[in-house]
Specification:
Strand content: 15-25%
Oligomer: single chain
Order of helices and strands: HEEHEHEHEHHEHHHEHEHEHEEEHEHEEE
Strand order of the largest sheet: 10-9-8-7-13-6-14-16-15
Shape: elongated
Helix content: 25-40%
Bound molecules: zinc ion
Radius of gyration: 23 Å
């Protein structure tokens, strides 16, 4: 494959990225059709519009699809789900060649689309732009293979690994409440990236400790369109979430609380009346099992989960081995404290971090690293 093929696949990947917030629980897919070096059709998948990216591209190309080369970021499907198989439509349209970035990550379907296309006499090439395509569909791959969401642990830290600055700890409660939103650890550029991450995620998970300390909103303020609201999930074993918290005051069918309290307690009913949904899980040592939480979120078609929590939940999640990826924003600040460390997990045994990447966001440095590979 030549440089043109790489350039065309990059275009298809750019289209696929437009599916952030719009494709889930389906994969993000982009597709273009090229004839005589010209793009004659293109599209990306949006769940609400049903048509897969290939069909959107074929419809936009019309008759020009005949003899064209299709560049698509994922193996075309060969099964009937909410739509007919894309392979049939590609064959019927007279596409001559298909270049796909990656195989279908669902082991049940993997390779079947390519086989069908080849059997119909279409040339098939794979692997161009594979790394990028896989990156886009880590959440889908994780969910389709395990029925649980892909978990990214995000944190903003001082250089000495603290989640809070010293002066925040010393503030009186009332003053802290009044000034809450003005003392951020990370830069504006980092916070914009966090909102981009929230936009790409289906749900956000935090612990009651973080709500009590920061009273955060935990909403997606990227301004980008999304088909489902970002589901805000709180682990609150004792149901001690305040009815006056900003989280509850902004609840709009997007707040889920996991607890080990009985679902019909007075507090549970009050929280439900205020707009939260309560899920009671049998507890282990008073806390909901993280595996059970993930299973329930997976059942609700949550593909990607952003963990934005404090030391206790960060430590528990790392200890339980549920974190796939870390995204840590280090701000050039020193706390001088050791009370709000990144994660409390005294017996933590982690395999070496993989695929480490650093990136500047304003004055901050973000460290991205993997703990698990969903494609293995
Ligand atoms: Zn399809």
């Amino acid at each position: 494959m030549d440089a043109h093929a790489i350039r065309f696949m990059e275009h298809a990947l750019t289209l696929a990225r437009k599916g952030a917030g719009l494709a889930s629980p389906n994969p993000m897919v982009g597709c273009i059709l090229v004839r005589e070096g010209q793009i004659v059709g293109e599209g990306f998948h949006q769940y609400e519009l049903r048509d897969h990216a290939e069909i959107v591209a074929l419809k936009s190309a019309g008759e020009k699809a005949r003899g064209a080369t299709m560049y698509v970021t994922l193996e075309p499907c060969n099964h009937t789900g909410r739509t007919g198989p894309c392979t049939g439509a590609i064959i019927a349209a007279g596409v001559q060649r298909v270049v796909a970035a990656m195989e279908d990550p669902n082991p049940i379907n993997s390779g079947a689309g390519f086989d069908r296309l080849r059997a119909a006499g279409i040339e098939v090439f794979t692997g161009i732009g594979e790394e990028e395509a896989r990156l886009l569909n880590e959440p889908f791959t994780c969910w389709i293979r395990t029925k649980k969401p892909f978990v990214t642990l995000k944190s903003a830290l001082t250089l000495d690994g603290q989640l809070a600055l010293a002066r925040e700890l010393h503030k009186s409660r009332q003053r802290a409440r009044r000034q809450k939103r003005t003392t951020w650890i990370s830069s504006e550029e980092s916070r914009a990236e966090v909102h981009r991450m929230r936009h790409a995620a289906d749900a956000l998970l935090t612990g009651i400790g973080t709500i009590k300390a920061d009273d955060p909103l935990l909403t997606d303020r990227s301004g980008q369109p999304r088909r489902r609201q970002l589901l805000r999930v709180v682990l609150d074993s004792q149901l001690s979430l305040s009815l006056k918290s900003r989280l509850l005051r902004t609840a709009d069918d997007d707040l889920l609380i996991f607890t080990s309290e009985a679902p019909n307690s007075r507090k549970a009913r009050a929280l439900e009346k205020a707009g939260a949904e309560i899920v009671s899980l049998r507890s282990r040592g008073g806390r909901a099992s993280l595996e059970a939480v993930l299973a329930e979120l997976g059942r609700r078609e949550i593909l990607s989960l952003l963990l934005e929590a404090g030391p206790t939940l960060n430590g528990a999640a790392l200890g339980a081995g549920i974190v796939h990826k870390l995204m840590l924003f280090y701000a050039p600040k020193i706390s001088g404290q050791s009370r709000v460390s990144f994660a409390v997990a005294p017996d933590l045994r982690l395999a070496p971090l993989q695929r480490i990447r650093t990136q500047p966001f304003g004055p901050d440095i973000a460290v991205e690293a993997y703990l698990q590979d969903v494609f293995r």
